Every structure is written in structure tokens, then in C-alpha cells.
Amino acid sequence: MLLLDSALEVIPRELASHPQVVKTARRYGLRPEEMVLDAGLHWKAMRSLEGWWRRGRPDIVHLSLLNLLEKRPVLEGKVEVYMHVQDGRVFAFAPDVRVPKNYDRFKGLMAQLLRDNRVPPSGRPLAWRVADSLRDFLGDRRIIVFSEGGASSDTLSVLREASSLGVPVGFGAFPRGDFSDEVKSLALKYYRIREGEPLKSWDVACSVANAYYEL
Fold it and tell me: For 92-121, what is each residue's pLDDT tens digit?
């Protein structure tokens, strides 16, 4: 079981009337609430947000999911993939979900997911809300977290330990800063891989995806 801890969110209400947000919404023919917050488009507007430095990077989520999904362990149902978002909700992905390779299409899909709590709106869901908070999602369990500040290990050993304990493994899919207080309060252990070499989120996702083939 794998969890992406992301800061994915739609345009917050307090930014909906910001000139930069209004301009980009018009460019795409959308209402502000139909767009995900994207630092590439909204960097001026989002600087007023609390913890802005860890928000507004849906591209990190996109690249991480592309490295995880459509892999045999996921397609065969051996690995469940979940995503934790800015407002605390947790979403599940179906084993056969195909994430759009086009970035704009991906953002549109994520905006729909955040708005409707599932995609597609009807029929069999390919992604859907499973909990309103990480604590509700975990229940009596905790989570093992990949972090540069953790104990040194290798990816396969971490996955084996998590499997034996029956707990999820998580990693950050945000640009900067620490994990949220909620994540830290529920972390069982922290591990760093590749001797603490600074890794991008999608590098961790790739390492995890490869390790699952050997698990």
C-alpha cells in the first residue's frame, strides 16, 4: 500500500478574484474553482497563502503517478495507490487507471476529482475519495515515511518491513518544506534511501515502483 502525500488543491476561495487567477481562468475558458492551483500559472497570487512554498505543484504529483501507475504490481492488484491532498482527503486509484500523459488534461482530471470526489462522475470510478482525513484512512495503523532525515535503508527493505507490519508506505509529492503535522503525528518510522542523496518525488516513485517488482 503506497500513499503520496501531496499539496494538490483547487484554487482556494480567497484567490478566486485575484487578477492573475482570473486571467488564467479566462485563458483556459474555466471558472477559478475548476482549476487546480499551479505555481507555473498562479505564483504571484499564491504567495499570500499559508505554507505557499509546499503548494501549487501538480506537476510533481503528475510525474510521480506516471512512474507508479500502469505497472504490473499495480495492475495485478498487488499494490494499492492512494493520494493525500492539501485539505486532508485521501483518494484511491483503481488498478487499471490510466493517468493522462498530457499535463493540462491531468490537471483537469484532478480538478474534477477534487470537486466531485470521484472520476468519472458516473459509472465505475477510476479514482475516488476513501477518507476525509489521513487519520480516518489509517485507523489504528501508522505509516512508514520516506524522508531524507530518516534512518538509512534501501527501498526493498522498507517495503518488506511495511508489508510485514501491514502499514502503508508514504512519500512527499510537494516541492519544499516538511510533512504536515498530521503526517508527522501518524508516522511510525522514517527512512532515507540512496544514503540520503537528495531525490525528487518522481525518483522515489520510480525506486518504489521498481522495488515492488521484487517484493
Answer: 999 999 999 999 999 999 999 999 999 999
Amino acid identity at 201: S
Helix or strand (DSSP H, E) at 143: strand 143-152
What is the per-residue DSSP string for 188-206?
EEEEE-GGG----HHHHHH
Average pLDDT over residues 10-38: 94
Residue 91 parent element (H or E): strand 90-93
Task: Report how far residue 152's alpha carbon sits from residue 67's, in angstroms, rounded to the nearest whole number.
Answer: 23
C-alpha cell at 131: 477518507
- CB of 84 within 8 A of CB of 5? yes
| Residue 126 amino acid letter | L
Contact 60, 35 (CB under 8 A): no
Cβ–Cβ < 8 Å for 145, 189: yes
Residue 31 CA to residue 184 CA, distance in Å, equals 35
pTM: 0.95
Residue 7 is classified by DSSP as -
Q: Which residue stretches of the chain are H helix?
A: 19-28, 39-46, 58-68, 72-75, 103-116, 134-138, 155-165, 181-186, 201-212
Name the grid cell of 44.
504571484
> Which 3 state secondary structure label does DSSP give 12?
coil
Ramachandran angles phi, psi of 8, nearest 5°: -65, 135
